[in-house]
Amino acid sequence: MPIITRRRLLRLSVLAVVLAVAAGGLTSAGGELWTRAAAQGHVYREADVPAAPVALVLGSEVYADGSPSPFLAARLDIAQRLLEAGKVKAILLSGDHSRWEYDEPGSMEVYLVARGVPASRIALDYAGFDTYDSCARAGRVFGVRQAIVVTQTYHLDRAVALCRSQGIDATGVGDDTVKIYEDPWRNSVIRERGAVVKAVTDVISHRDPVFLGRPETTVHEALSAS
């Protein structure tokens, strides 16, 4: 049996790393191609988006005092304008409430109600732990069949693609006003490259959301209140 020298072992290790990086890059590129293709023709400017019954607002960071981060506040502001313009009749707020002290949907509701949005037009999804879960639960738990998805522009293709993969006739409106926060924006764009790989994996596996639960009627009630 040939003896593997330290130098040869080092070369093999470097080659393995290079191949792994290349494979990861190809997977990420494939994920980006899928999300762009799936979202093509379904992403709009706010003024041009066709009307839909529901705006699905995807959660993001909430501060310790309960206030939404600028990224989340920008999403909520778009949803409010869509409601006021008659583009949607109800708003579904989907986010993370996996810990008692951290409540994205509840904080989102407080923000909107404080700005004049009737609570009766709002539904809450407390188990939107990631984009796939938010989209899957919107359709399977809340009965949403058509929606405008609201998030930042770097995230929008993936969000629309995932919702459409769950049988929702989804369009999307994205915010880019928070580009002024250069470091968080740049970091989010970088993280998105990995997130598209997870998105493809989730769609292929047809996994259930982390928490599925029973069907809820709150979206239908919010639509009835319009």
TrEMBL record:
<dbReference type="InterPro" id="IPR003848">
    <property type="entry name" value="DUF218"/>
</dbReference>
<dbReference type="InterPro" id="IPR051599">
    <property type="entry name" value="Cell_Envelope_Assoc"/>
</dbReference>
<feature type="domain" description="DUF218">
    <location>
        <begin position="54"/>
        <end position="170"/>
    </location>
</feature>
<dbReference type="Pfam" id="PF02698">
    <property type="entry name" value="DUF218"/>
</dbReference>
<dbReference type="InterPro" id="IPR006311">
    <property type="entry name" value="TAT_signal"/>
</dbReference>
<protein>
    <submittedName>
        <fullName>YdcF family protein</fullName>
    </submittedName>
</protein>
